[in-house]
Design a protein that fits this description.
alpha+beta, 298 residues, 5-stranded mixed beta sheet, globular, 7-stranded mixed beta sheet
């Protein structure tokens, strides 16, 4: 599976501005994650959400909470002070990553990736922040809210995970070289038609791998691949805010990455594939054989 242009790098070391953008992405994501962590017990103080705290978007199963909105507003407010000339594309507040002038930065923000997990109180939701330049992520951070673990990367500078106790680990994806024993994660759409097709595809994929995981947060799945805790991940219909930071982190950890163009919305149903190099070719061949590399429009 060829690596897309968005993740090709010939520079042996990270550019200075990429490192600065990485530091800011970490600062933004950690500030928002702290807010999300503090707000959940307030919003769900009586065992259920406070009145008016939860709404739905395109599908009845696709929730958005007041904390999603607050988290994104916090990030936008910090950027207005720190980098007021930059553009922003956020899941809740919108924006247009394709409208930026060449060489400028657009911040791509998912204020809570894994909102359903957040809603139910399940671990596995994160804040994701990426700096995108000329259609390519160049720096990013994903913070696991429940564990306060920060994953980050800059193009050409590798990827790290910093735990709540300050312990830092350089990320390297798994060395598995057989798809038959690979642990693969995926996700499912909110729309019934796409979800039904994803389920059909899974019946053909599952017998060819060790097992499947559905954790419920794409950004976290990508970081798990980067950390060697999953061998691969695939999903149809991601938006840029779902993958921009996590895919860069995985690529910098050595994963083979295939993502849509950053301007392509999730409704188009294009596939994202992120895999350890030892299983990437086999996985792609399997997905092609069963028809999973075809788009699944919503």
């Amino acid at each position: 599976m060829p690596e897309p242009a968005a993740f090709e790098t010939t520079a042996p070391t990270v550019a200075a501005d990429y490192d600065e953008l990485r530091s800011l992405a970490v600062e933004l994501a950690e500030a928002a994650a702290a807010h999300v962590r503090a707000r959940r017990p307030e919003v769900f103080a009586d065992g259920g959400p406070a009145e008016g705290a939860v709404a739905t978007k395109g599908h009845v199963t696709d929730p958005v909470t007041v904390v999603d909105t607050e988290s994104e507003q916090l990030i936008r407010g910090l950027l207005a002070v720190r980098r007021p000339a930059d553009a922003i594309l956020g899941e809740e507040g919108g924006g247009d990553v394709g409208a930026s002038a060449p060489g400028t930065v657009t911040w791509v923000v998912d204020p809570i990736d894994g909102t359903v997990n957040f809603l139910y109180g399940l671990p596995g939701y994160a804040v994701s922040v990426a700096a995108v330049r000329d259609g390519s992520p160049v720096a990013g951070a994903v913070v696991d809210v429940a564990t306060a673990t920060t994953y980050s990367a800059a193009r050409g500078g590798g990827a790290t995970a910093v735990r709540a106790d300050g312990t830092s680990t350089t990320l390297t994806c798994a060395r598995e070289d057989s798809l038959a024993v690979a642990l693969v994660a995926t996700g499912f759409a909110y729309g019934r038609q796409r979800r039904a097709r994803q389920a059909q595809l899974l019946t053909e994929i599952l017998p060819e791998i060790r097992d499947i995981r559905r954790l419920g947060a794409a950004a976290m799945d990508l970081c798990h691949v980067a950390a060697g805790e999953l061998d691969a991940y695939y999903e149809h219909g991601l938006n840029a805010w779902d993958w921009a930071a996590g895919a860069l982190i995985a690529a910098e950890a050595g994963a083979v990455v295939r993502v849509p163009e950053v301007t392509v919305g999730g409704a188009a149903g294009e596939i994202t594939i992120v895999a350890a190099p030892g299983v990437a070719g086999e996985l792609t061949a399997l997905l092609e054989r069963v028809g999973a590399t075809e788009s699944l429009p919503d």
